[in-house]
Every structure is written in structure tokens, then in C-alpha cells.
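From the methods appendix. Each design record in this collection lists the discretized structure first, followed by the designed amino acid sequence. Records were kept in a plain field format so they could be parsed without special tools. The example shown here is representative of the layout used throughout.

RECORD:
C-ALPHA CELLS (296 positions):
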């Protein structure tokens, strides 16, 4: 039913079952990025409502839908057809008509979605790709002076706000339940996934982009989620996607519900995914752009 996992250039290529069953849970289960994302991206990347955006690993169009109004044209690319269908629905509901949805992997670039683009975004998706090779391909697809933006949540080194006065999501206990059902090695698709040991910054520094800039945008300090949304968050991940559980996740779901009921009688939880980290790298501007920026 699904394409088999293929190997090229010594690397394991995309496993089409990675997010199987996760798309329907994604928008309901995932915390939003910083409310200041658009403003900061517009300022840092010089967005003026024109040009083209490519959102790679767009999933259900989280960034795509938020950023589409800042561009003339948008291409949203993801290998998972169910994710793309969710994204199309969300774009339709928001009345957006300037987005083209492409089913492909980042490794299929540039052929799958030829440039040029003013901005290429990866929201929690760059780590799924052959990072150095994909960054080099993106460099060639950008207009001179255009930007690559890697976006994700981070708690590392970020101050923790006091919270809204409801219990925090008991992630450690929920992860113990995941391990009880799926084992203690992180699962992904038909295989497992080793913990990440390197930073995006270091990968980009070794490409033509050079050392990128990292910015931290304030996360939502008082985000409250309901029990079902917390559960959806787990089903939206690759490591706890519904297909991994022999019964589709029914027993896991009832155990999580019971655990959450014990933690919060109101069924409300504080979610602190951290601030939003924006790693920005720019393609070398052309000579006129460089001269203008010197004058400015
Ligand atoms: C965590 S989701 C991110 C969705 C969305 N960009 C966001 O910011 O929430 C990761 C997405 O990366 C996609 N993905 C996985 N491997 C990929 C690859 N090789 N190329 C492009 N996208 C990939 C998955 O299908 C999934 O939709």
C-alpha cells in the first residue's frame, strides 16, 4: 500500500509511513509558534507582500497559512498527502487562493518546485532532510538577498514564564506510557530514530550560507490545552503516531486520559513549548543590493 523505504547515496530516504495517521491530529494538538513570527520575519527577511515563498515540510500548512498573505505566490511542499489535504482545507477556510500544494520531499528540490523564491521556510522539518544537501539546493533556489528560515520551538536556555495557574502537561509521565507501548527507543515510520546531536547553525555554517543568525521570539506564556488536545499532540508526532500502536492507539489514549484526569480535575493543562527559534540565513545579495545596503 505504501512506497517502500529506498536508500540513495548511502542515506535512508524518506519513509512514507513516518506521519501515517498523524495529520488529522496536528492542528488541534500542536502549540502555535510565537504571535510575533510574521512581524519578525517581515522585518528580518525584508518581506513586502511580493515575491514567492516556499514552505518545505509544510505539514498541514501551519506556517504556509500564517505567511501566505505576505507573498504574491506560495508553494507548500510535503511528502505526506494527508498533511497536504489538511493544509488545503485550512487555506480554504482562511480564504487563501495563492498557495500551490506539492507532494514531494525536500530532496526532490529543485525539480519538484523550481525557484526563484524570496523566502524558503522549514517549520520543524529541516531535521527530516539530508540537511547539507538540501541547504545547498535551497541556496541556488533563492533570489540574491533572499532568506532561508528554520523555525521551531525551544525551551533550551529560555526563561520559563510563571504559567496560568493550571497544571503543566505531564510530559514525563505521558512519555513513560509511550515507552510502555512502543519501547524505549524513539520510533519513526518503520524504524527508529537516533537522538539529534548537532545544531542547524553548524550545518548551515558549512554551506554557502555561512554562519546564520538565531533569534528568539516570545512564545505564548499562558497557553492552556484540553485533555483531547494534549492527546492529539502525541498522535501528531512521528514517535507516537497512531499507526505505531497495534490497536491504532486506543489503549494508549485511554491510559493518557486517565493519567490526565488524575493530574487536572478540570481537564485543563498549561502548555509551554518554549519560545520560537528562528534561524535565518541569507543568500549573498547581488552587487546593486550590496551597494544599496551600504548607502542605507
Ligand atoms: C513536524 S511536521 C512540521 C509541520 C509544519 N511545518 C509545522 O511547522 O508545524 C514535519 C513535516 O515534515 C515532513 N517531512 C518529513 N520528511 C521530509 C522530507 N524529506 N522533505 C520534506 N518534508 C518532510 C513531514 O511529512 C511532516 O509533515
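DESIGN:
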Amino acid at each position: 500500500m505504501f512506497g517502500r523505504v529506498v536508500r540513495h547515496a548511502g542515506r535512508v530516504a524518506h519513509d512514507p509511513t513516518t506521519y501515517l495517521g498523524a495529520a488529522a491530529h496536528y492542528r488541534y494538538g500542536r502549540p502555535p509558534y510565537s504571535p510575533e513570527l510574521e512581524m519578525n520575519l517581515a522585518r528580518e527577511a525584508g518581506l513586502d507582500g511580493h515575491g514567492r515563498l516556499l514552505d518545505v515540510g509544510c505539514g498541514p500548512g501551519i506556517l504556509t497559512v500564517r505567511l501566505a498573505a505576505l507573498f504574491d505566490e506560495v508553494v507548500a511542499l510535503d511528502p505526506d498527502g494527508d498533511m497536504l489535504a489538511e493544509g488545503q482545507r485550512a487555506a480554504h477556510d482562511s480564504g487563501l487562493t495563492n498557495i500551490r500544494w506539492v507532494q514531494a520531499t525536500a530532496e526532490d528540490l529543485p525539480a519538484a518546485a523550481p525557484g526563484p523564491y524570496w523566502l524558503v521556510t522549514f517549520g520543524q522539518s529541516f531535521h527530516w532532510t539530508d540537511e547539507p544537501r538540501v541547504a545547498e539546493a535551497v541556496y541556488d533556489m533563492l533570489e540574491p538577498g533572499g532568506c532561508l528560515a528554520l523555525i521551531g520551538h525551544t525551551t533550551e536556555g529560555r526563561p520559563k514564564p510563571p504559567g496560568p495557574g493550571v497544571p503543566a502537561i505531564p510530559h514525563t509521565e505521558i512519555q513513560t506510557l509511550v515507552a510502555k507501548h512502543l519501547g524505549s527507543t524513539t520510533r519513526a515510520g518503520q524504524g527508529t530514530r537516533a537522538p539529534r546531536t548537532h545544531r542547524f547553525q553548524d550545518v548551515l555554517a558549512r554551506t554557502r550560507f555561512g554562519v546564520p543568525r538565531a533569534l528568539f521570539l516570545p512564545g505564548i506564556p499562558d497557553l492552556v490545552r484540553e485533555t483531547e488536545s494534549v492527546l492529539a499532540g502525541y498522535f501528531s508526532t512521528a514517535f507516537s503516531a497512531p499507526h505505531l500502536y497495534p490497536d491504532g492507539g486506543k489503549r494508549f489514549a485511554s491510559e493518557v486520559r486517565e493519567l490526565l484526569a488524575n493530574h487536572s480535575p478540570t481537564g485543563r493543562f498549561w502548555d509551554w513549548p518554549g519560545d520560537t527559534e528562528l534561524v535565518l540565513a541569507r543568500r549573498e545579495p547581488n552587487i546593486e543590493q550590496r551597494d544599496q545596503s551600504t548607502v542605507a
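APPENDIX NOTE: The two ends are 57 Å apart (CA to CA).
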